[in-house]
Amino acid sequence: MDNKPKSREEIFKILDKYQEKDMNYSEGRILGSMCTESESIAQSVFYKFINSNLGDPGLFKGTKIIEDHAIKLIGSLLSIDNPYGHIVTGGTEANLMAMRAARNYARKYKNINNSEIIIPKSAHFSFKKAADIFGLKIVEADMREDYKIDVSSLESKITKNTVAIVAIAGTTELGLVDSIDKISEIAKRNNIYLHVDAAFGGFIIPFLKDAGYDFPEFDFSLEGVCSMTIDPHKMGLSTIPSGCILFRDKKYLDVMVVESPYLTKKKQSTIVGTRNGASAAATYAVMEYMGREGYTKFALEAMEKTNTLKEGLLKMGYEIVTEPELNIIAFTHPNIDVNHLAYLLEEKNWRVSISAYPKAIRIVIMRHVTLDNIKEFLADLKCIADNF
Length: 388
Ligand code: 0PR
Description:
With 388 residues, the chain is α/β, with parallel strands linked by helices. The protein is built from twelve helices and 13 strands.
């Protein structure tokens, strides 16, 4: 660090130069991201609460009330009137909290010390982090041919050490929703904690249901569901970093409690200490601003765009991995290697991602991807296929 302070202008000039290298969502070329440009109200509110620290909520009583409101609003999307939980940094932290709660609960009430979690191959890699941090053994659930958990063999994976089953509502790679209703029955019957990762799906499935789409129950309406991850910074249009963990019962927060004697609140269940209140305020604001109506419109537009992409792909001889259930689509070309196809698309300035299971080009149709972008993308795909 220099001894002499720099001026604001100088600093902004330096930063602008770096920021120019970043991509902008508004260019519509980012096709593999679950994040998007947040609503402008969320951005303004985030800045307004930039200094509030929910790690010491007695100092920020108003922000704490806002977090509680946000938790209740999110609960109302997931069929629970009085959820317990927190606005956190994202799906990873939410999943970490869920796995910590499940482990601690089983340790305290079932005397399980060699904890195992049953997770599908489709689960986000954050569960591997959780397993590493909390010393959990991962047991993989069998998968059906349609890339969902094979419910029929799930019970055979349960052992005396199983502390949690994880199911996904909106898988990272394909956007698929597991048969959570049946999984919930199994969890209930065997008295095992069930966590649903709806980081992506949580802010779209309820609205598609409102609009008449057919999805099986996936949330707290199912008795077996103990916790859910749902991310406002994905389909919720809130600012990064905004995730959310909801628990059915306070007892799951209680098993994570650590004494925090010198703070205004003497107990803490969150993983982090100092934590931002801005995300909670921004999330509350954007939810009030959008209303169910706004999110439903947004969800339907996303599905319409996904359908346009799907039809276009099929017309040109591309193959889709599976019928999209949400606004994520994965595809391949019968004659072009997936990595090569991604490379050719990158040369045309598209940023796609490659799914691992199965290997395919994976597109997430977030709000910044317009119909015009999709038409242009399809034209480039046609050009690639015609010239191959
Ligand atoms: N659970 C699910 C189902 C997810 O898809 C993700 C992230 C997480 C949990 C973890 O969430 P956080 O990243 O908020 O901790 N899924 C995306 C992914 O890994 C995240 C992402 C977002 C990736 C934007 C790229 C990107 O540009 O693919």
